[in-house]
Amino acid sequence: MAGHTPYQFLEQRPGSNSRQWFLRGRNLLAEVVYRATIGPEPRTPDEVAQDHGIPRAAVDEAVDYGRRHADVIQYEREDVLTNIRQRGLDTPPCAPAEGVPGA
Fold first, then answer.
1. Which one, 61, 63, 68, 79, has least CB within 10 Å?
2. In a domain? residue 1
3. Which residues neighbour 76 within 8 Å (Cβ) at sequence distance 6 or greater?
4. Extended strands (E) in the chain
């Protein structure tokens, strides 16, 4: 990837539909690593590193990325949710009618 990046362990993915960055050489979004360190049951950076088999420094970079690029992460999450709603994937399937074979 051309250009300077402040991150050693994170990279953009050419051709990806996501604007978010991934861990270099892994199919793992930096957001996933970041979110593991926050929330109702946060894991320590060392635990997250062990969980994913990555260096602790990669977790630190993902946390930095998540904090600095919260707008990109939020935009993509909202875009995914909008797509799910538009496709009707947010509602349970209809129950089969009585008397219908296979019900």
1. 68
2. no
3. 18, 19, 20
4. 10-11, 22-23
Q: Exposed, middle or buried: residue 68 (CB in 10 Å: 0-12, 13-18, 19+)? A: exposed
Gap between the Cα atoms of 27 and 22, Å rounded: 7
Q: Look up tokens 């019900």; give the residue.
A: 103
Q: What is the pTM of this model?
A: 0.77
- Per the domain annotation, does 5 fall within a domain? no
Q: Which of 33-42, 58-67, 92-101 has the lowest mean pLDDT?
A: 92-101
Is residue 46 assigned to a domain?
yes
Q: Which residues constitute the domain of residue 42?
A: 10-86
With respect to residue 91, please indicate whether it lies within any of the assigned structural domains.
no
